[in-house]
Amino acid sequence: MAHQAGGQRPVPRPAPGTPDVQAYLRDYGALLEACPFPSLVVDHRWGVLLTNTAFRTLFRDVEPHPTALPWDNFLRFVLFHPDAATVLGDHEAGWCLPMLAHFAKTVERYGHDRGLQAIRRDIGQDPIMEAAYRHGLPHWLRAVGERAAEHDGSVRSLLHPDPRWGATDCRIVVETTPTLAELDCARLTLVLRETHRAPSGHRRSRRAASHLRVVHAAD
């Protein structure tokens, strides 16, 4: 797709709005492309409207997937793509659990949204993830605090395919504008940090579908 092609001006995915809004998104895509850090625009379902070259480079080695590519729906990628742990360091505690917590709040807000309900059904089909969502997540939030579920300002681990970065951290910066807010959209930028970790010697292997181990079901 055009918005995935590195080096080209991103083309926004179809989104509700007037021609002026569509033109705004095209220009916002040019702004995104000028950012040196991985950046994307998502809607309230984490459906991806825009990405930049740095984002696509970060995830360039992930295998094809019918529903969970990072430039299609970032939440689905984090939760369901078997390659997620090869890019997202500390995958379970650092990415899965905060995303599940954020998803739970979004479901409360939007109720019968079909896209969110489809994700909820997929969570329910994984017994370990379902147990984490229904029982373990409240215990985790009590232990780490509600702030752990917030993305803006959080520092999370990455395994960048570019050896100049390698195993590093990023700070997530969440921003929106009045126009993006009208579309229920926000921009996330993964600001890469020049950390100096010892190389692990290999990249993380792909995981099985039932992967969550940090949070267990209540007794």
How would you characterize this protein structure?
- The structure is a single chain.
- With 219 residues, the chain is α+β, with helices and mostly antiparallel strands.
- The chain has eight helices and five strands.
- It has helices at 19-33, 53-58, 74-80, 84-87, 91-110, 114-124, 127-144, 178-182; strands at 39-42, 48-51, 155-159, 167-175, 186-193.
- The chain starts with 18 loop residues before the first helix and ends in a 26-residue tail after the last strand.
Features:
disordered C terminus; single chain; disordered N terminus; 39% helix; 219 residues; 8 helices; 5-stranded antiparallel sheet; alpha+beta
What is shown here, in short?
This protein has 219 residues and is an alpha+beta fold. Helices cover 39% and strands 14% of the residues. Helix 5 crosses helix 7.
List the helices and strands and how they pair.
Blueprint: H1 19-33, E1 39-42, E2 48-51, H2 53-58, H3 74-80, H4 84-87, H5 91-110, H6 114-124, H7 127-144, E3 155-159, E4 167-175, H8 178-182, E5 186-193
Antiparallel strand pairs: 1-2, 1-5, 3-4, 4-5
Helix pairs in contact: 5-7
> How many E-type strands?
5
Regarding quaternary structure, how should these chains be classified?
A: single chain
Distance between the termini: 47 Å
Structural class: alpha+beta
